[in-house]
Amino acid sequence: MINEVLWFSSLFASLFAVIIAYKLFGRLGLYIWIAAAVIIANIQVMKLVQIFGLETALGNVIYASIFLATDILNENHTKKDAQKAVWIGFFILIATTIIMQLTLFFIPSLNDELNPHIVKIFSFLPRITIASLTAYLISQNHDVWFYAKLKLKDKKNRIWLRNNLSTITSQFLDNVIFTLIAFIGLQSIETIAQIFLTAMLLKIIVAILDTPFIYLSKKIKNKHIF
């Protein structure tokens, strides 16, 4: 059960981090969180683990927190602010990939002990980045567009509904695109299918559990002027 405990700990740590960043720094805090989250998620995703008896890649939780951050921007501020956050994440992911690829070309010192591990991790990053960039752009832009559309049409102001509908549908798009590009040819079809199904299940759980946090963000917004 250690992985399950760690997974839920990571979940609530990530969601609370979004809220703390928002409370401390406002919109800027969410932009900073998104920049950090895209980097961490694309490193974590290289590790496969067993959660609830099913195999999945890490990174789902912290990546899902990006949807919470953009939904908060969409809800409490404007669609333009949420769209800006998406492009910040896109830029950071490209910049990180380029810089780390240049890092791999450096000749290590004779005293260096970590270079083989750095090479192992970041030589795989370009494929992950292509998968992540494609999935990120499509799913995040869909989330921003769909959330804004639901907000405009929802006369009853059901935040929980638009938060879950926009996030779950966008996560589905992200999951399909990323899983196919990142793992096809590297893992068996059975493993890829299990990764996809487990990731989707976990992302739905995250989408549901992040709902109270977007309501909490409303209270923070009402107390502060960002």
Which features does this protein show?
single chain, globular, mainly alpha, two-stranded antiparallel ribbon, 226 residues
Walk me through this protein's architecture.
This protein is mostly helical and 226 residues long. The chain has one domain. Helices cover 80% and strands 4% of the residues. It has 9 helices and 2 strands; from the N terminus they run ααββααααααα. A two-stranded antiparallel sheet has the order 1-2. A hairpin with a 2-residue loop joins strand 1 and strand 2 (54-57). Helix 1 runs parallel beside helix 9. The radius of gyration is 18 Å and the shape is globular. The mean pLDDT is 89.
Ordered list of secondary-structure elements with their pairings:
Blueprint: H1 2-25, H2 27-44, E1 48-51, E2 54-57, H3 60-76, H4 79-104, H5 115-122, H6 125-153, H7 159-183, H8 189-209, H9 211-223
Helix pairs in contact: 1-2, 1-3, 1-9, 2-3, 2-4, 3-4, 3-6, 3-7, 3-8, 3-9, 4-5, 4-6, 6-7, 7-8, 7-9
The percentage of residues in β strands lies in under 5%
How many alpha or pi helices? 9
Shape: globular
Unreliably modeled segments? none
Number of strands: 2
- Radius of gyration, in angstroms, nearest whole number: 18 Å
